[in-house]
Write a structure and sequence with these properties.
- By secondary structure, this protein is of the alpha+beta class.
- The chain folds into two domains: 3-90, no CATH class; 103-289, no CATH class.
- Helix content is 48%, strand content 14%.
- The chain has helices spanning 14-22, 110-127, 134-137, 148-167, 170-180, 190-205, 208-223, 228-238, 244-254, 258-268, 275-289, and strands spanning 6-12, 26-31, 35-40, 45-50, 59-62, 75-78, 81-84, 87-90.
- An eight-stranded mixed β-sheet has the order 2-3-4-5-1-8-7-6.
- A hairpin with a 2-residue loop joins strand 6 and strand 7 (81-84).
- The termini are far apart.
- The model has no long low-confidence stretch (mean pLDDT 95).
């Protein structure tokens, strides 16, 4: 084999390792310049990503990235890697990346967390697209360009979601999540992105047991109403797993580093068209409510 066709993994998430071990059949789900998403027989997703993208909860980060991948590309999966057309993705010696941020570092810092929520609110006011759900969270619906149906649904159910989180009312949370899941355009629907950010807010403000229970309840009702890629993110959120920029954001909040907070948030914000803004808005809104006594 031509050594130039071997692409070594520089890191791998535990969920990606499990995907390799459990996959019998797979296909290309989406292919982009720096990300290729694969889906297997169980509708589980693995992402091959360029180093510029960084680590994620179901990703393999490659030192070099395969070119020319298409939906029809040939795929053969084995325990330590895969063939993608004529490219060998070698994950045999890749170090495992830990996908759970240091959420607990924020649990004893309510004033710091509240200040961070304010900083995120200011950034969202400045940068959130007019057709994002973030504008609804910011109570800035007057500038929203969302379709009326989506705007009304969001205005009805986002407050219900946040009130359910504030009171730890699982039924109320799930009822709102059921309405928001799959709502809006995009590779990951806006409603799903907001739910994901809300899950991260739970992990940042609640004990792990409570965060896990409430986030899993959200994911259970949302996953069945969306598609495979978005479902993978929601399942990861229910486990408290997040992409690398969120790790940087949590570390910045914990260290009260305003410049690092802004830098991390500005890495998240451009994700997709509104995905980053909507996830940050869900996160910020839960931070504003604080944790349990």
């Amino acid at each position: 084999m031509n050594a130039d066709r071997r692409l070594r993994a520089r890191s791998i998430a535990p969920a990606a390792q499990h995907w390799l071990h459990s996959t019998q059949e797979a296909r290309v789900l989406y292919a982009f310049e720096a990300v290729v998403n694969l889906v297997n027989q169980d509708a589980q997703v693995l992402s091959l990503v360029d180093a510029r993208i960084g680590d994620g909860p179901f990703s393999i980060v490659l030192e070099d990235f395969p070119q020319g991948t298409q939906a029809e590309s040939r795929l053969l999966v084995f325990e330590n890697g895969l063939w993608l057309d004529d490219w060998l993705i070698d994950a045999d010696s890749a170090p495992q990346w830990h996908p759970v941020p240091a959420w607990a570092a924020l649990h004893t810092m309510p004033d710091t967390v509240a200040h961070a929520a304010g900083e995120l609110s200011l950034l969202l006011q400045q940068y959130a697209p007019e057709d994002s759900l973030a504008r609804i969270v910011l109570l800035d619906a007057g500038t929203s360009t969302l379709p009326v149906r989506i705007q009304q649904l969001a205005e009805q159910n986002i407050p219900q979601l946040l009130e359910g989180i504030r009171s730890q009312d699982a039924n109320r949370i799930q009822a709102a999540a059921r309405k928001l899941a799959g709502v809006g355009p995009g590779l990951t629907p806006a409603g799903d992105d907001l739910l994901l950010g809300s899950m991260y807010g739970l992990w940042a403000t609640q004990p792990a047991s409570a965060a896990s229970e409430l986030a899993e309840g959200m994911a259970d009702v949302a996953i069945e109403r969306t598609h495979a890629l978005s479902a993978a993110w929601l399942a990861a959120g229910a486990r408290g797993e997040a992409a690398q920029p969120w790790h940087q954001l949590i570390a910045a909040i914990a260290s009260s580093d305003g410049a690092a907070l802004q830098a991390a948030a500005l890495r998240i914000l451009p994700t997709g068209h509104t995905s980053g803004a909507d996830a940050l808005a869900g996160f910020m809104a839960v931070l504003q409510q604080g944790g349990t006594a």
